Amino acid sequence: MNLYLRLLRSLLRGWLAPPISPFAVAESQFRVWLNDIDAFGHMNNGRYMQIMDAARVEWMVRCGVAAVMWRHRWGAIVGGGMMRYRHSLHVVQRYRVRTRLVFWDRRWFFLEHAFLDASDRCVAVGITRAALRDSGGWVDTARVVAAVQPDAEPPPQPAFLADWLAAEERIYADASTMSATSVQTSGARDPAATRVDCEV
User: Fold this and answer.
1) What is the extent of the structural domain holding 145?
2) 66 and 60 in contact (C-beta within 8 Å)?
């Protein structure tokens, strides 16, 4: 199914489903379609990230984040993600994604997405961090929390999340210093001209 149709379906399901607390787990239903599979007959690894987008939309609608975004004209940006694959999903197979809020800091909200098959087996799990922006820049998470559930406090930061963020910073720093001298290419290039700049 086309991603935009899935997003629309997630919006409709979120509107029709009962509201939940931002700390509750939202469960979204999906099925593997032909355009989800790769040459090896199982769901493509990149499709999991897109499904997480759709599941996150349903969670945002149900817990009230989407309404606050639309009211303030905020946009959402994903700033990173991590996936762990354990088992395969095959064509026409039904599965569910359970989405929950794990933690937040001044800028980022961290969400966990667990993929489960019909037997409740966890086939994959992913973590994403997302933030909101307006025309003036980043929206502080305190503003979002105050609008959705005033006085809510972030849960303790899980140890695995701190480890992931530390590893992510090391990877980012290493990529930022990469130059042509460390890459074999088919033609001679000026290392200074091909230096990778990862600053955003």
Assistant:
1) 3-155
2) yes
